Amino acid sequence: MLAPLAVVVGAAFNADQFLAFPPAGLSLEWFADAVADTTYTYPFLFSLQVALIAAVGAAAIGTLFAIGIARHKVPGSGALQSFALSPLTMPSIIFAIGILQTVSQLLGGSAAWILMLAHVVVTVPYVVRTVLGVIARSDGFTEEAVRVMGARWWQRYWHVLLPMCRPGIIAGGFLAFIVSFDDAVIALFLRTPQLQTLPLAIYGQLEFSASPTVAAVSTLSMALTAVSILAIEKIVGLGKVFS
Predict the structure, then answer these.
(1) Residue pair 199/184 in contact by the 8 Å Cβ criterion
(2) Structure pTM?
Protein backbone atom coordinates (compact mmCIF):
# COMPACT_ATOMS: atom_id res chain seq x y z
CA MET A 1 0.00 0.00 0.00
CA LEU A 2 2.91 2.34 0.70
CA ALA A 3 4.74 1.46 -2.53
CA PRO A 4 2.78 3.88 -4.80
CA LEU A 5 3.29 6.67 -2.25
CA ALA A 6 7.01 5.98 -2.16
CA VAL A 7 7.15 6.20 -5.97
CA VAL A 8 5.39 9.59 -5.95
CA VAL A 9 7.67 10.97 -3.24
CA GLY A 10 10.78 9.65 -4.97
CA ALA A 11 9.72 11.13 -8.31
CA ALA A 12 9.17 14.51 -6.65
CA PHE A 13 12.89 14.71 -5.82
CA ASN A 14 14.00 13.65 -9.30
CA ALA A 15 16.58 16.01 -10.78
CA ASP A 16 15.46 15.18 -14.33
CA GLN A 17 12.63 17.17 -15.96
CA PHE A 18 10.61 14.02 -16.59
CA LEU A 19 8.53 12.08 -14.10
CA ALA A 20 10.57 8.97 -13.34
CA PHE A 21 11.38 6.55 -10.56
CA PRO A 22 13.93 5.82 -9.28
CA PRO A 23 15.19 9.41 -9.55
CA ALA A 24 18.25 10.07 -11.68
CA GLY A 25 19.40 12.58 -9.08
CA LEU A 26 18.07 14.55 -6.12
CA SER A 27 16.70 18.08 -6.42
CA LEU A 28 14.26 20.41 -4.63
CA GLU A 29 13.61 22.38 -7.82
CA TRP A 30 10.13 20.96 -8.36
CA PHE A 31 9.00 21.87 -4.87
CA ALA A 32 10.04 25.47 -5.51
CA ASP A 33 8.16 25.43 -8.81
CA ALA A 34 5.06 24.00 -7.10
CA VAL A 35 5.03 26.74 -4.46
CA ALA A 36 5.54 29.50 -7.04
CA ASP A 37 3.06 28.22 -9.66
CA THR A 38 -0.42 29.76 -9.36
CA THR A 39 -1.77 26.68 -11.14
CA TYR A 40 -1.41 24.98 -7.77
CA THR A 41 -1.32 27.78 -5.18
CA TYR A 42 -4.82 29.12 -5.91
CA PRO A 43 -6.45 25.65 -5.86
CA PHE A 44 -4.53 24.89 -2.67
CA LEU A 45 -5.86 27.99 -0.93
CA PHE A 46 -9.39 27.24 -2.14
CA SER A 47 -9.15 23.62 -0.97
CA LEU A 48 -7.85 24.84 2.39
CA GLN A 49 -10.78 27.25 2.71
CA VAL A 50 -13.34 24.58 1.81
CA ALA A 51 -11.77 22.05 4.18
CA LEU A 52 -11.67 24.47 7.11
CA ILE A 53 -15.33 25.44 6.64
CA ALA A 54 -16.30 21.79 6.23
CA ALA A 55 -14.44 20.87 9.42
CA VAL A 56 -16.04 23.63 11.49
CA GLY A 57 -19.52 22.99 10.08
CA ALA A 58 -19.26 19.23 10.50
CA ALA A 59 -17.96 19.62 14.07
CA ALA A 60 -20.88 21.83 15.06
CA ILE A 61 -23.64 19.83 13.36
CA GLY A 62 -22.17 16.42 14.14
CA THR A 63 -21.70 17.23 17.84
CA LEU A 64 -25.27 18.44 18.28
CA PHE A 65 -26.59 15.42 16.41
CA ALA A 66 -24.53 12.97 18.46
CA ILE A 67 -25.52 14.55 21.77
CA GLY A 68 -29.17 14.56 20.73
CA ILE A 69 -29.08 10.86 19.92
CA ALA A 70 -27.08 9.84 22.99
CA ARG A 71 -28.66 12.01 25.67
CA HIS A 72 -32.29 12.35 24.62
CA LYS A 73 -34.95 9.72 24.12
CA VAL A 74 -35.61 10.54 20.48
CA PRO A 75 -38.07 8.23 18.70
CA GLY A 76 -36.24 6.20 16.08
CA SER A 77 -32.80 7.20 17.35
CA GLY A 78 -31.32 4.06 15.81
CA ALA A 79 -32.69 4.98 12.39
CA LEU A 80 -31.44 8.56 12.83
CA GLN A 81 -27.97 7.30 13.67
CA SER A 82 -27.96 5.05 10.60
CA PHE A 83 -29.11 7.99 8.48
CA ALA A 84 -26.39 10.24 9.88
CA LEU A 85 -23.72 7.62 9.13
CA SER A 86 -25.09 6.76 5.66
CA PRO A 87 -22.57 8.95 3.75
CA LEU A 88 -19.84 6.62 5.08
CA THR A 89 -21.39 3.65 3.28
CA MET A 90 -22.70 5.45 0.20
CA PRO A 91 -20.31 5.66 -2.79
CA SER A 92 -19.10 9.23 -3.23
CA ILE A 93 -20.00 9.22 -6.91
CA ILE A 94 -23.66 8.44 -6.12
CA PHE A 95 -23.81 11.33 -3.66
CA ALA A 96 -22.04 13.62 -6.13
CA ILE A 97 -24.50 12.78 -8.92
CA GLY A 98 -27.42 13.48 -6.58
CA ILE A 99 -25.97 16.84 -5.56
CA LEU A 100 -25.28 17.75 -9.20
CA GLN A 101 -28.85 16.95 -10.27
CA THR A 102 -30.30 18.92 -7.37
CA VAL A 103 -28.07 21.92 -8.01
CA SER A 104 -28.78 21.89 -11.76
CA GLN A 105 -32.55 21.75 -11.34
CA LEU A 106 -32.99 24.12 -8.40
CA LEU A 107 -30.12 26.58 -8.72
CA GLY A 108 -29.03 26.29 -12.33
CA GLY A 109 -25.37 25.82 -11.53
CA SER A 110 -22.72 25.27 -8.91
CA ALA A 111 -21.11 27.75 -6.55
CA ALA A 112 -18.46 27.76 -3.85
CA TRP A 113 -20.99 27.58 -1.02
CA ILE A 114 -22.64 24.55 -2.62
CA LEU A 115 -19.33 22.68 -2.68
CA MET A 116 -18.71 23.65 0.94
CA LEU A 117 -22.19 22.52 1.96
CA ALA A 118 -21.72 19.19 0.16
CA HIS A 119 -18.45 18.64 2.00
CA VAL A 120 -20.11 19.43 5.33
CA VAL A 121 -22.79 16.82 4.63
CA VAL A 122 -20.21 14.21 3.67
CA THR A 123 -17.97 14.84 6.69
CA VAL A 124 -20.64 15.13 9.42
CA PRO A 125 -20.68 11.31 9.96
CA TYR A 126 -17.03 11.35 11.03
CA VAL A 127 -17.83 13.78 13.84
CA VAL A 128 -20.96 11.85 14.81
CA ARG A 129 -18.94 8.65 15.00
CA THR A 130 -16.13 10.08 17.13
CA VAL A 131 -18.41 12.03 19.50
CA LEU A 132 -20.71 9.03 20.00
CA GLY A 133 -17.66 6.93 20.78
CA VAL A 134 -16.54 9.36 23.48
CA ILE A 135 -20.03 9.63 24.99
CA ALA A 136 -20.42 5.85 25.06
CA ARG A 137 -17.31 5.55 27.26
CA SER A 138 -18.14 8.53 29.47
CA ASP A 139 -19.27 8.46 33.08
CA GLY A 140 -22.90 9.56 33.31
CA PHE A 141 -22.68 10.01 37.07
CA THR A 142 -20.98 13.40 36.69
CA GLU A 143 -23.86 14.78 34.65
CA GLU A 144 -26.37 13.33 37.10
CA ALA A 145 -24.48 14.83 40.03
CA VAL A 146 -24.53 18.36 38.65
CA ARG A 147 -28.20 17.97 37.76
CA VAL A 148 -29.05 16.94 41.33
CA MET A 149 -27.07 19.92 42.62
CA GLY A 150 -29.38 22.23 40.71
CA ALA A 151 -27.42 23.01 37.54
CA ARG A 152 -29.56 24.14 34.61
CA TRP A 153 -29.57 22.13 31.39
CA TRP A 154 -27.35 24.59 29.56
CA GLN A 155 -24.87 24.57 32.46
CA ARG A 156 -24.69 20.78 32.32
CA TYR A 157 -24.07 20.88 28.57
CA TRP A 158 -21.58 23.74 28.62
CA HIS A 159 -19.52 22.79 31.70
CA VAL A 160 -19.78 18.98 31.66
CA LEU A 161 -20.95 17.38 28.42
CA LEU A 162 -19.12 19.53 25.86
CA PRO A 163 -15.75 19.36 27.66
CA MET A 164 -16.24 15.61 27.95
CA CYS A 165 -16.89 15.40 24.17
CA ARG A 166 -13.89 17.60 23.27
CA PRO A 167 -11.61 14.72 22.17
CA GLY A 168 -14.29 13.39 19.82
CA ILE A 169 -15.03 16.86 18.46
CA ILE A 170 -11.36 17.60 17.77
CA ALA A 171 -10.70 14.20 16.20
CA GLY A 172 -13.86 14.38 14.08
CA GLY A 173 -13.01 17.90 12.95
CA PHE A 174 -9.52 16.86 11.86
CA LEU A 175 -10.93 13.85 9.99
CA ALA A 176 -13.50 16.09 8.31
CA PHE A 177 -10.69 18.42 7.23
CA ILE A 178 -8.67 15.55 5.75
CA VAL A 179 -11.64 14.05 3.88
CA SER A 180 -12.67 17.42 2.47
CA PHE A 181 -9.16 18.48 1.47
CA ASP A 182 -8.46 15.20 -0.34
CA ASP A 183 -11.87 14.90 -2.03
CA ALA A 184 -11.84 14.70 -5.81
CA VAL A 185 -15.13 13.01 -6.73
CA ILE A 186 -17.61 15.56 -5.38
CA ALA A 187 -15.40 18.47 -6.46
CA LEU A 188 -15.20 16.98 -9.95
CA PHE A 189 -18.99 16.98 -10.35
CA LEU A 190 -19.48 20.46 -8.84
CA ARG A 191 -16.51 22.20 -10.41
CA THR A 192 -16.65 25.29 -12.58
CA PRO A 193 -13.78 27.23 -14.22
CA GLN A 194 -13.65 29.31 -11.04
CA LEU A 195 -13.98 26.39 -8.59
CA GLN A 196 -10.78 24.37 -8.80
CA THR A 197 -9.59 22.34 -5.83
CA LEU A 198 -6.06 21.00 -5.48
CA PRO A 199 -6.89 17.36 -6.35
CA LEU A 200 -8.59 18.55 -9.54
CA ALA A 201 -5.62 20.76 -10.40
CA ILE A 202 -3.30 17.77 -10.02
CA TYR A 203 -5.58 15.60 -12.13
CA GLY A 204 -5.84 18.29 -14.82
CA GLN A 205 -2.07 18.61 -15.09
CA LEU A 206 -1.64 14.84 -15.35
CA GLU A 207 -3.91 14.85 -18.40
CA PHE A 208 -1.46 17.06 -20.29
CA SER A 209 2.00 16.45 -18.84
CA ALA A 210 3.27 14.26 -16.04
CA SER A 211 6.01 16.54 -14.74
CA PRO A 212 7.88 16.16 -11.43
CA THR A 213 6.06 19.30 -10.27
CA VAL A 214 2.85 17.26 -10.07
CA ALA A 215 4.65 14.72 -7.90
CA ALA A 216 5.97 17.53 -5.70
CA VAL A 217 2.47 18.95 -5.20
CA SER A 218 1.15 15.48 -4.40
CA THR A 219 3.94 14.97 -1.88
CA LEU A 220 3.14 18.26 -0.15
CA SER A 221 -0.54 17.29 -0.05
CA MET A 222 0.32 13.92 1.51
CA ALA A 223 2.53 15.70 4.04
CA LEU A 224 -0.36 17.94 5.09
CA THR A 225 -2.60 14.88 5.54
CA ALA A 226 0.10 13.11 7.57
CA VAL A 227 0.57 16.17 9.79
CA SER A 228 -3.18 16.31 10.41
CA ILE A 229 -3.26 12.64 11.44
CA LEU A 230 -0.26 13.12 13.74
CA ALA A 231 -2.00 16.14 15.27
CA ILE A 232 -5.08 14.02 16.05
CA GLU A 233 -2.89 11.40 17.69
CA LYS A 234 -0.91 13.98 19.64
CA ILE A 235 -3.89 16.01 20.87
CA VAL A 236 -6.51 13.38 21.62
CA GLY A 237 -5.11 9.97 20.65
CA LEU A 238 -6.76 7.93 17.93
CA GLY A 239 -6.94 4.89 20.17
CA LYS A 240 -9.01 6.78 22.75
CA VAL A 241 -11.49 7.99 20.16
CA PHE A 242 -11.99 4.82 18.11
CA SER A 243 -11.49 2.14 20.74
Answers:
(1) yes
(2) 0.83
